[in-house]
Structures are given as C-alpha cells and as structure tokens.
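Incident log, support desk, overnight shift.

02:14 A customer reports that sequence design results differ from what the structure should imply. Their input is reproduced verbatim below. On-call engineer (initials T.W.) acknowledged and began investigating.
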C-alpha cells in the first residue's frame, strides 16, 4: 500500500499557489487539492476593523483548523482507497506515477497547527510592489477596502514569513534526522519553470520513500 504524500503550497497572496496546485494535480493520477480559503471561520468569529469596516482575513486565527484537519483526514482516506483499488486492478504497488498525493494550498499553512503533516513545503514570495500590482486586479467578496493591503495583508505576510525564517534557524541548530525545510520560490518566475521544479521535487521525494 502506498503511503500518502502531502504537499503544502503556501506563501504570499497572489503568488501563484492555486495555479501551481491545479497544474500539479493534472500530472498525478491519484491526487486532490484542499483550498483552505474555502475553510475559514464564520465572519462573526473574525477580527473586525471598524475603521476599514472590514474583517481581517490574513492571520492564522482566520481559518477553522479543526475543520481543515477533518478535510485532510477525509481526503487522505479517499486517496488511499483509490490507490488500493487501482493497485488491485493493475496489479502494481509502487509505480510513482500513481502514488496518492494530497495538495493543500493557502496562506499560513506552515504557521498553522497542521504544519507537521507536510512532506514537502513550498512557499511563494513576491516583493511588495509586484504583490500589490497583482492584488489590486483581483476582485474579492466582500470587496476589499482601500488601506487593507497596507494595514493587514502585507505586514502580516512579512510577520509570518519572518516567523518561518526564525523557525528554520532554530531547527538548523538542532541535531535532527529530518531537518525542517521550506522551499522558498519566487512568485514572479514563469509558472512552467516552477511546475517543472516542483514535479521534480515530488519525484525525488518519492524515490526516498
């Protein structure tokens, strides 16, 4: 029976997370995606800024992590069941092309309570100017008010990114058989280049399974 591979795709807003996840899913027969943007807490549970008349969507507490954990469990079991059925049908067990893979995409994955589940961590980065250029072209529901990006979105991205960088430094000072690792990827690279790298990273990881 194949062991499930879980790939986290996180990082900056509008960095290319969903695009990469969707393209990777097309390459793997037994795979699925969880988009955590669809699993936030009810709006009345989010922090509210009365000046902007808007809720804060960019902190760890925005997401319903218990619900996300349940979705991970359900998706994982479905993928493993599909893998078993296909293995019996085709009489094979270890072909990498049919390895079950769960892709999870969204901001703050590696700052969250589910960080430990990931086999591969991919983190998109952008500079502030490019990030804002992309974000202001996107339509949000509810509509994002002027000032939100500067007050919450960008500062919180930098805060959580710094938290991860410090986590890596602390881990590197420890002796561990499996060092904590995050692959930082520039979001302004061509998506096909990033896709090629990510797919190679998955294959390399599977060879060590």
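02:41 Re-run completed on a clean worker. Output:
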């Amino acid at each position: 029976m194949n062991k499930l591979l879980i790939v986290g795709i996180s990082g900056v807003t509008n960095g290319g997370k969903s695009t990469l996840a969707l393209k990777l899913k097309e390459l793997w027969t037994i795979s699925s995606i969880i988009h955590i943007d669809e699993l936030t807490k009810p709006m009345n549970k989010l922090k509210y800024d009365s000046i902007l008349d808007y809720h804060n969507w960019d902190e760890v507490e925005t997401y319903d992590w218990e619900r996300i954990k349940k979705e991970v469990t359900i998706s994982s079991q479905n993928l493993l069941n599909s893998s078993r059925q296909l293995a019996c049908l085709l009489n094979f067990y270890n072909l990498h092309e049919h390895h079950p893979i769960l892709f999870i995409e969204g901001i703050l994955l590696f700052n969250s309570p589910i960080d430990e589940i990931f086999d591969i961590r991919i983190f998109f980065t952008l500079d502030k100017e490019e990030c804002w250029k992309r974000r202001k072209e996107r339509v949000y529901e509810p509509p994002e008010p002027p000032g939100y990006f500067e007050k919450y979105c960008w500062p919180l991205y930098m805060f959580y990114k710094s938290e991860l960088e410090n986590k890596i430094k602390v881990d590197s000072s420890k002796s561990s058989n499996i060092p904590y690792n995050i692959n930082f990827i520039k979001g302004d690279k061509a998506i096909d280049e990033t896709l090629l790298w990510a797919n190679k990273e998955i294959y390399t990881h599977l060879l060590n399974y």
